[in-house]
Amino acid sequence: MPAVSNPKRTPVFRLLTIASSGIGSFVLGIWGLKHGLGAGFAGISADMMVAIMAALCALAASVAAMSFFAGVDESADFVFNETHFDKLTGLLARPAMVGKIAEAACVTSRTGEPVFLIDIDIDRFKQINDAIGYSQGDELIRAFTRRLQDSVPARALIGRIGAGEFAVLLPDHQIQGTMEGMIERLIDEMMEPYELSSHQQSVSLSVGIVAMPKDGVDPVLILRRSNLALQHARASGVGNWSVFDSEMGRVADYRQWVESELHTAFERGDFDLHYQPQLDLPSGRIVGYEALIRWNHPERGMIPPMEFIQIAEETGMINPIGEWVLRKACNDARHLPDDCFVAVNISPVQFMTKDFVGIVRDTMRATGIKPSRLELEVTETAMMQDRDRAAVILKELAEMGISVAVDDFGTGYSNLSYLIDFSFGKLKIDRSFVSRIDTDSSSGAVVSTIVGLSRALGVSIIAEGVETESQATLLRAAGCEVVQGYLFGRPAPLRIGLGGGQATDEVRRVANLH
């Protein structure tokens, strides 16, 4: 159904309104004339005049009432259409789609026939809209709508439930062939380029599917679960689709719990730092410690960083948590031997904050740590978010005397030109290469190449994730002499004694072997 225009009064409505006003004015005029001219007027007696005026008043009142109720009906129609239909496409709007899902849930609960909700989202639609302009974006949505209507069964209900998100409500008996085949065909057809007035636009899709009554009958819950399936599909790559399963719900519930608990955990002081030693193989000496955050929840125990760091980044909690980590690591570094540094991981979100360099400078001033004893580990992804700004930040850190290590080197950005533009002091070979160096010749070749690259650039090199003697031996043979990993010590709270931070017996024992 097409969207309805604003509730402007129709010509008939305006005519009735004008007529009623005119009649009312006429009656008032007659009334005035009567009082002005006495008991009669133009041969008409006063009683007859009153009767005529009463009839005209009744007529005017009835016409006014008709005009009013016509306007009420028209406004009610407008409000209904405004809330139930999308203006741009004429499809069902989200509130109406929720109602249709509720109706379908009632029917499927009674008949047992499955009804599927197919959640279709245009990936990165906001970025597309910003790039091509809103008018072209609207044109894309209209073209997408027309093709979607042609691609699904004729009696399927379609709604637009987000800027670039659509929902299709489809009973099982309307599906021709298998669900898998239909979805694959739908994705292929919908991802064909769209001919817009100014250019040809390509899109990619993610699709999530939920089935009623198997996955529930609450319309709000059904929409949430279809979106969970959609997010799972998006994480799997371009043009994918996924069917909801209960594990997605558990993951989402856990994520929500983490998100709601992070601020409380920070205020409560749940976080702590553990330190993993970094060892120089030729001398067997510990040269530094990497600070690694740990969350010890009072009820759930230790929560791994991989389960909360990304959520902290997305919610903005990474900034206060990151500042706390930097400050505590710098404070703890004062208890390490003078020739040891502390390495601190910097989140991409934290790295690109407005005054990151100022925060580092203030922290060093407050803790009294020397710049040579602080190393910041930054990923390639963080540096490539805004190359110009990243170059300025790295230059300022280098001028302060702070070393920056490129963390997880070789797993992120593919264009190595940034190595020339950026100021950094160390490359860190990712554990994914180290874990296979003794079983995969290609990994060994990559490690040797990274070592050679670091020498050519005049920067240091370190390998992480070393767990076996064989890996350590091959790394040293390749020219990588500084390592860290479980072979040399697991992350642990810093042991502070009279002599400063102490290496564990395990570190000393393994170091002596090399």
Automatic annotation (TrEMBL):
<dbReference type="InterPro" id="IPR001633">
    <property type="entry name" value="EAL_dom"/>
</dbReference>
<dbReference type="Pfam" id="PF00990">
    <property type="entry name" value="GGDEF"/>
</dbReference>
<dbReference type="InterPro" id="IPR043128">
    <property type="entry name" value="Rev_trsase/Diguanyl_cyclase"/>
</dbReference>
<dbReference type="Pfam" id="PF00563">
    <property type="entry name" value="EAL"/>
</dbReference>
<dbReference type="InterPro" id="IPR035919">
    <property type="entry name" value="EAL_sf"/>
</dbReference>
<dbReference type="GO" id="GO:0071111">
    <property type="term" value="F:cyclic-guanylate-specific phosphodiesterase activity"/>
</dbReference>
<dbReference type="InterPro" id="IPR050706">
    <property type="entry name" value="Cyclic-di-GMP_PDE-like"/>
</dbReference>
<dbReference type="InterPro" id="IPR029787">
    <property type="entry name" value="Nucleotide_cyclase"/>
</dbReference>
<protein>
    <submittedName>
        <fullName>Diguanylate phosphodiesterase</fullName>
    </submittedName>
</protein>
<dbReference type="InterPro" id="IPR000160">
    <property type="entry name" value="GGDEF_dom"/>
</dbReference>
